[in-house]
Amino acid sequence: MTKRILVVEDQEDNRQILRDLLSNAGFEIIEAETGEEALVAASSQRPDLILMDIQLPVLDGYEVTRRIKANPLLQEIPIIVVTSYALSGDEGKAREAGCNDYVTKPYSPRELLTKIRNLLSL
Amino acid sequence: MTFGENTVLNRLPIGVKVFIAPAIIIALMIGVIVFSQSALQRQRAAFLEVVGGSLTTSTQTTQLLLAVAEMQSDMLRYAQLRIRLPANDSVLIDLRRSIIDKYQRIDALFERLKSVSSQGESDAVSNISDFLTIHRAVSLKILEGGSVTSMAVSTLMAHYQQLQSYIVELATRSLESAQTAERQTTEYVENFSFHLIAASFAIVVISIILTVYIGRAISKPITQMIAVMDSIASGQVDAVVPGMQRRDEIGAMARAVGVFANVSRQLRDRERSLVEARSLAEDASKHKSQFLANMSHELRTPLNAILGYTELMLDNIYGEPPHKMQAVLHRVQSNGKHLLGLINDVLDLSKIEAGQFTLAIVDYSIKEIVQTVFTTLEALAAEKKLELRVELPPNLPRARGDDRRLTQALLNLVGNAIKFTDSGTVTISASVHNDDYTLSVRDTGPGIAEADQTKIFQEFQQADSSATKKKGGTGLGLAIAKNIVEMHGGQIGIHSALGQGATFYFTVPILAQQHSAAA
After folding, report:
1. N or C: which end of chain B has fewer CB within 10 A?
2. Which among B301, B313, B342, B345 is the top mutation candidate for probing chain A, defined by the most A β-carbons within 10 Å of its own β-carbon?
């Protein structure tokens, strides 16, 4: 059965890379450009994994992660936080919000794919 | 009491003011003493005149009374003896002579009495004079007469008694006048002593008032001045200094305090502008750090797309690229990673400047650090046909510190060595001394002149700016390495001479703790 991955990312280029990478690897992709869209998509389509960009307008990735992890129906969904914040404490903040893994931009698509496969036990 | 700016006291020096009260008190004392002296002299004269006169009169009167009594007694004896003895008897002759002598003495005494008696006693004195004359006439008649009759004796007695009563009266009067003088003297002395006490009391009161008044005139402005200086010292430099117009020492002091206040105001203003300038500089530095952090972050997003697409292409996601294009894609990837390294350097520097650069202290292996660096840069060295060598002693100890940061520091040193060396060898070696270990990177490059050796550890500095153009680089690598080493409590350095290659090294404690950055 094809696994569905929710990509939360406000930048078209980065969404395109993930689209190319993940569809090539045989995943189904759902996309969200804002935190609100991500919350709606998460509860309505129940993905198997979420790739969460941190820098989003209005509702940031930390807050979206916190809300999903606080929802008993959704909290089992693994979340990988993708951030370009390379300041110290960013990883701690992401972990606090409840993410399952963490990558810093620029990430290697190859390595990201490995992390996704690990979390989905593929 | 007020101390206005224009009172006479304000014009006198303190040295003079201090003597005003004692001088006035001394003058008053001298006045009282002189007055008392003259009053006593006058009283003494009055006393001598009244009391002295009465006393002499009373003494003379007594002597006269005694002399008259003696003479009377002689007369009575003569009268008795004359009845039994003839007139020419030797006893009678002697007695007569004695009586005559006594009269002469009485005369002399009376003359003295007259001379000392006062005006009020003149009637008594003339009465005595009259009866002395009569008594003497009667006595002479008895002494010269042939026989003594009882009639003559009783006449003598009667006159004697009258004479005695006058003398006693005179004595009584002079006694009375002496008593009056005594009473007056007592009154005068009491009166005088009352005034003396009153005057002394007044002097004491005046002295106290004067001393307090002048004391306050001296001390109050000084107290005010001290209060003003205190408030200036405590930072209220705009305090108004009173008494600058005065002509005494207080005025001089006030003008000096005025200078002090001016200097304090200038110091405060200067300090304010310094604080302002510093806060502006701090703001600017904060803005710069924030800007660098933001820039570094913004640059990562497009770089992510560049590196991401390149990797996808190299992984044949879009089909296998032609061989020639693969080589180009590798170059794109390698340059993209280099750009990432530069962005990371800028971010590290902004963290260092913002004080956000902290160490994550963990247990690590020195050998692993060296191996990571070797693995990372082996390909780069091979590309330049350089030999990259590692010389490690056996049994390197486990260490504590931030292994990721120390790896970064060593990467910077080895990366620089490879970058600036055109041929030969780059050697990484390690050694342990007591509680520290040293990692060294020796190259066979051009070397660095002694004058440039401290400069190269500063931000944005390179030894030879033409080298920068040829070799690239931001000049941040050594500055960041220096910070990492110093935050471990270690030291970074270089041994080199132009044309003889260079050895960069750093020494850190085997068990390191977080130190504050020196940058």
Report:
1. N
2. B301
- Please give the C-alpha separations between residue B195 and each of B36, B187, B199, B472, in angstroms, as whole numbers: 10, 12, 6, 113
The dihedral sign for the CA sequence B20, B21, B26, B27 = positive
SS (H, E, C) B148-186: CCHHHHHHHHHHHHHHHHHHHHHHHHHHHHHHHHHHHHH
Q: How many CB pairs under 8 A join A and B?
A: 60
**B41 vs B28, B46, B48, B179, B513, CA distance in Å?**
20, 9, 11, 21, 104
Q: How far apart are CA A21 and CA A28, in angstroms?
A: 11
Write out B353-421 in H/E/C secondary structure: HHCCCCCCCEEEEHHHHHHHHHHHHHHHHHHCCCEEEEECCCCCCEEEECHHHHHHHHHHHHHHHHHHC
Among A102-116, B12-26, B368-382, which stretch is predicted with the lowest mean pLDDT?
B12-26
- Mean pLDDT taken over chain B: 84
Q: Would you call B315 and A17 a contact, using CB atoms and an 8 Å cutoff?
A: no
Which tens digits make up the pLDDT trace of A58-98? 888 999 999 999 999 999 999 999 887 655 566 778 888 88
Exposed/middle/buried for residue B294 (C-beta within 10 Å: 0-12, 13-18, 19+): exposed
Predicted TM-score of the model (pTM): 0.51
Give strand pairing partners of A8.
Answer: A32, A52
* Cα–Cα dist B63/B57, whole Å: 10
Asked if the Cβ–Cβ distance from A86 to B301 is below 8 Å, we say: no
One-letter-per-residue 3-state SS of B7-26:
CHHHHCCHHHHHHHHHHHHH
Is A27 in a helix, a strand, or coil? Answer: coil
| Higher local confidence (pLDDT), B12 or B225 | B225
Q: Any residues with CB less than 8 A from the CB of B34 and at least 6 apart, and which?
A: none
> How far is residue B17's CA from residue B331's CA, in Å, rounded to a whole number?
99
- Maximum distance among all alpha carbons in chain A? 39
Sheet holding B425-433, edge to edge: B387-391, B425-433, B436-443, B502-509, B491-496
Closest partner residue to A11 (CB to CB) among B296, B301, B315 is B301
Place of tokens 């200078």: B259
- In this structure, what are the phi and psi dihedrals at residue A111, rounded to the nearest 5 degrees? -70, -35
